[in-house]
């Protein structure tokens, strides 16, 4: 179980990076970034998980509720989710302008940073 | 690099990174191990000290409230940034398009969508408010509820039209709520200072755990965050919609 | 075990205010946007940045006596377990916050005439950037550091993409955003690993838990991840590729923020986590080996940056490579892991931060003038242009670490304390200084004569000419920044202050004791030595060599083909391809992990 749980994290992170490196479309690239990001969210939640633990909400609990999972890791992943949403929104806005200006979303065709030499 | 070389180099690099991550993760305690002392202390303190039955809210908005202040400002920066990036640029104009064929009948949204929207929008508002106001009691809070509130407006847009949805989202008011939400969090922090305690200290009565009024400043911060998040997300969507609906290439000078 | 929600010590109240003031002003500015008149917007923005700078300055002066520790929400540690988030400000962090504040103020004043209709959002973003930088420099919590890291990146790439009409700034912003977000994810993974291992997010507690134990695989990987993540932001090879794309296309006021603050923040993050978290677990030969790893990275970065600066025609990209080259020197200095050397690096970085800011602004003025008038050559185009050109020449001299600029004090301190590595450090600094100085001078001369490739595009906001005396708000910031670099160098006993600041920064037990509220006297100041006539001669020789090399470069027709052949492959690597940049970044991370494993285990 431990191996599977952590293997998923590695897989999501690496496959997200693979998608970004080979991406031919900026929207696709933003989604791949979110995939890589979800690896970190998952890792945070996995570190915080306690076997047979209940949510860190102390209301209407049974008599012997057992252990509580880590509330801090849940809070951190909440922060990370908001952060990911913000970055995605901004990258999508940049992509909209790229498409409007160049008619393409292919990052390979953006080579204008390097000015033309005469 | 050619596509092939890049892929090869990347695969080698990614394999290396995967091994490194594997080594790191192998050092972690077994999946499902008991939580850290930090987590146990927080879980033990959330109810007696914060009167908040939701420990996650107690962490995000009190014990680690400064993280959330900056997190809120990341969203704030994203909203400001999207507005800057998607502003009508120097060669563009922002105005409602002229109807080129006024006599053509625009098919209205299907009545099924309209009905569903009419039912869904108020429900979403209620669910959003419920989530925001009960953050200190049960899972939820300003971020989660704020997003639900914002989605109510998207449903209105889906069920009606851009111009109708536009009426519910005057730009100035949204900007003000965006600023008020972000600034409100800072004000709650500074009130703690004025009370002679630390920044973001609790300054109000804590209430009874499990009640709607509990958790001290946590529900106030949840409300403030909800204003910021709801306003921010509507503003974000508006900026993207404006790109297709209002902003266009300025051909032949600005029309008056 | 009910903790006392203690009231903060009097006087420490200023630390949270230095962050709260710019954030509150940003909220007002963006919330009111167009409804406040432009003049009031600018005044509010500048006043907030000035207040934050002054507050940071006061906190710095407090921290010079003893660390300023502040617990948010009053949550002090419970029986050794940290439950809240703290600021633990030492002189180094305090000084970095002041640098960020000053550069933000300069950017805001300069922007008064620079941006037309941005409303309140542009200054709001600059203020959020400032607050996030201060938070990054002061926080004592690793996750809080990550949040600030992300916020600095987010505001940075928005400001970079400001000229959204054009492809280049958009691409620069996208590369900036993607690389820094990946860097952030890597940092977060490192944070998560360390939390899983130590059960805390607090730097002091984490360091205490790790101290004295030989680092296991998890700690090594966590170090590699944090180091690579922070070095993405700093712009070290091979994570630097996004940097020229971003700096080369950002508006001038945004460039000075990201060039003067972001790189320093990245290196600061590495130094902070090393000193507080990892140093206690690493000793003896492992420390020697990690020095080699970081030092090699520093030398490589300095050389690549210098070579690319020499090969680059585009003035602002050129400056970006100069930033990279200097970062390599700082990294080399840090890699010595000696406190006094760290003090030298801090002085170098502070002085260079001001100067790089002044250079970007001066180039911005010239660019703006050419955009407005279409003038090719700049000779005889009015006093403002002459002043801007003067700033560039003086700035180059300052980057050459000539006395009395602060960077010269820093360099002497660094070389004097480098010990057996002294000649190597001296040589790398000489190459960097001569190469980058020559590149800037040659580029300036070409612009002056009217042969620059950096042709301003007409789509940028049209602006009136900056050639007259009227534009004080444009001219004052670069001049004042240059004066600040000069003034800092004239502070008496500057080297001693820097060395003692570094000693406090590297004092892990002292940091831990301060965070846990135990009183502890300041560390004894180490002797600095150095000074004398010899450094002066070397500095002078370096400046002269810069001028000579620049003269050689200007007559490029003869050497350009040679230079072009030599650096062609290097330039091909810097074509701005996002997939390439990511590949290099991932390769760097894997290599860093392998090298750390070999070094630390």
Question: How would you portray this structure in words?
Answer:
The complex is a heterotrimer of chains A (118), B (256) and C (601). Chain A has a domain at 24-50 and 68-102. In chain A, helix 1 (2-22) packs antiparallel against helix 2 (26-48) and helix 2 (26-48) packs antiparallel against helix 3. Chain A has helices spanning 2-22, 26-48, 71-102. The longest helix of chain A has 32 residues, at 71-102. Chain A has 118 residues and is mainly alpha-helical. Chain B has one domain (54-97, 108-249). In chain B, 66% of the residues lie in helices and 2% in strands. Chain B contains nine helices and two strands; from the N terminus they run H-H-H-H-E-H-H-H-H-H-E. Chain B has helices at residues 3-26, 37-50, 55-63, 65-85, 111-133, 142-159, 162-167, 171-194, 217-245; strands at 92-94, 247-249. Chain B is globular. Chain C has one domain (14-600). In chain C, helix 4 packs parallel to helix 10, helix 7 (203-210) packs across helix 19 (508-515) and helix 13 (339-373) runs antiparallel to helix 14 (383-399). Mean pLDDT of chain C is 85; it is low at 458-469 and 521-533. At the B-C interface, helix 1, helix 2, helix 4 and helix 8 of B face helix 1, helix 4, helix 5, helix 6 and helix 8 of C.
Q: Helix share of residues of chain B?
A: 55-70%
C-alpha termini separation of chain B: 50 Å
User: Major beta sheet of chain A, specifics?
Assistant: none
Strand order of the largest sheet of chain B: 1-2
